Amino acid sequence: MLAPHFAVTSSLLGNEDIGHGGFDAVVIAADLKEFQNIAALKEIFPKFENARKRIFIIDQKARLLVFQAYALGATHVLTHPVTQQKLLATLSDGDKSGIALEDASRGTQQAASCGATALASMFSAVLGGKPIDIADAKHAAGKIADSIANDGLSSWLETVRRHHEGTYQHCLLVVGVAVDFGLSLGLARRDIERLYSAAMFHDIGKAKIPLAVLDKPGKLDPEERSLIETHPTAGYDVLIATPGISPEILDAVRHHHEFLDGSGYPDALCAASISDVVRILTISDIFAALIEDRRYKPPMPRDRAYEIICNMRGKLEAPLVVAFKDVALSR
Q1: If 0-12 CB within 10 Å is exposed, 13-18 middle and 19+ buried, where does residue 32 land?
Q2: Is pTM beyond 0.85 here?
Q3: Topology of 101-329 in CATH?
């Protein structure tokens, strides 16, 4: 399937001579319901951590299997049957613009991988009714903040969009945009920490939403839209009894879709009831959603995304929208 297009080395899982790294991409087809396969992958995966793409092929689109693949280090997850065209398209960079992973700094690559792994762990914990590792999630978000400070937002956006998909891509983009927004505003380190923690947890409620709705290509119908709009309260309900989650983070998780004019959800809050952290997070969330790279839609240009935000008059804080221009267009 791949040999005419790539130089291919193949091996069975468990083979001690499976390789010594140096691969540009790795494709793994394994039954992730089997503990021994997971253990074997954990043992060999350090050899593949520098691969630009780590594609898992699983037997069914069961959420726990998808989360397990991402937790192991996947950048893409495909489900059987996989056509040659689909696999080649996933391996190929196609017509995507932006930097290649090898052009990004090692810190950016590692922060993105660490962030995706933490998100996968959180979503898996929610789905399985297990405790969320709050410290691990905050540590991963802190690494993202350091990456943004060192390498800039553009490097982060292109690295994440090129190598992560769906809800994980969105969450990673939101953390990066929110951090850069905070840096551009001159916020103190403590305030940046509050912001990246809120961003890291803001969409945890989406773990409760069926993948068929989350990953639907195209417009949602009214019933699906109503289901999506339950994710802020679902996230709030998951986190409210979790040690280490501050009231400020809970507020951000529940209210990041509220608007100043009261037209948002779930509580139809108005201006006076919406905190500064939520106001910053909401702008970051909208911008990240607009510039996402989705399977069915290329990313919107950043200037067009900012134009849409500017046109949301009365819903977003105008001085913050003005201050966001540099983040949206230049950083």
Answers
A1: buried
A2: no
A3: Hypothetical protein af1432 (1.10.3210)
